[in-house]
Amino acid sequence: MNRVIRSVLGWFAAPRLNMREDYEKVRRAQRGLAAIAVPPTRARDWETVEDGAIFPVPVRIFRPKETLRDDVVVFFHGGGWVTGDIDSYTPACTTMADRMGCVVASVDYRLAPEHPFPAGLDDCYQVAQRILNQPELVDAVHRENIILMGDSAGGNLAAVVSTLLRDRGEPVPRRQILLYPVTQWDHDPRTSPFESVRQHGEDLRLTNTEVQDYLELYVPEAAMRRDPLVSPLEQKDLSALPDTLVISAGLDLLRDEGEAYATALAAAGNDVVVHRVERALHGFITLPRFSRSLHEAYDVIGTFLDGRAEPS
Predict the structure, then answer these.
(1) CA 284 to CA 92: how far, in whole Å?
(2) Would you say 87 and 31 are in contact if contact means Cβ atoms under 8 Å apart?
(3) In the chain, where are the structural domains located?
(4) pTM, two decimal places
């Protein structure tokens, strides 16, 4: 990336926001932008049944223009566990359904800091567990058609939900798609084991400061951030997990940790495909449909779903 483009992007970098104070403003801005960009959508809302201490979890079902696959994607949105919702992700999920040619179920899990860890994780787990046990709720033919997918913090949640399902003896999805996921707790350039944190953590779309703020809002107790339910790279047993596609962004500080998680999954005996979108920034799944990065990612996803990708 040349200096001029990097300089322009720097104006939009997160240090110009204080996420601890401005997260509500960011939420409003995201909804406003989504409302402007929202395409014609074939969506309906569905809620889980209230169960004890778990609140009803809204889920929005998106249907494609043309059905190409029997799969159903259970999608967990990004936003650092603090921002994002089914409204702000409606344009992205409409594109997702159309490009993948299948149903997408977008989960509106609870957000920090109002609802810190593990509230959002519990919501995602409940929805995934219920759909895997009752795939007919989303018109899936069989649970093997259910795919967990998430971007950024949502990729983190998808990875953790898969391990929780396995550990609790529940049905485990056959496949998962993790887009530039958060997989570990340390994003300090002085101590992080990953070079991408030092290369891309200061002046691009996502910064070290922003990730750290998100983590502290999501998990206020510092020691808990090393828990495998927060940092899946800390998980000691990564065996018997879904076939996995990890897509990283070449200009993203999370690039190396997402790819490291893919390596760890493969070392544990899972089938894993890794693809880096070289010139992409963090969060590219929400870009307009004409984005080159978006086209590349969905081409890779289609190959993975059709079983044409070779494990890495």
Answers:
(1) 10
(2) yes
(3) 3-305
(4) 0.90
**Three-state secondary structure string covering 118-166:** CHHHHHHHHHHHHHHHCHHHHCCCCHHHEEEEEECHHHHHHHHHHHHHH
Contacts 24+ apart (CB under 8 A), 275-278: 275/245, 275/246, 275/247, 275/248, 275/300, 276/247, 276/248, 276/249, 276/250, 277/247, 277/248, 277/249, 277/250, 278/250
Class of domain 3-305 (CATH, top level)? alpha beta
Q: What residues are annotated to the active site?
A: 152, 252, 282
The Cα 224–Cα 31 span in angstroms is 31
Residue type for position 5: I
What does the alpha-carbon distance between residue 244 and residue 271 come to, in Å, rounded to a whole number?
A: 6
For 153-178, the pLDDT digits (tens) are 999 999 999 999 999 999 999 999 99
42-95 pLDDT, tens per residue? 778 876 545 544 457 899 999 999 999 999 999 999 999 999 999 999 999 999
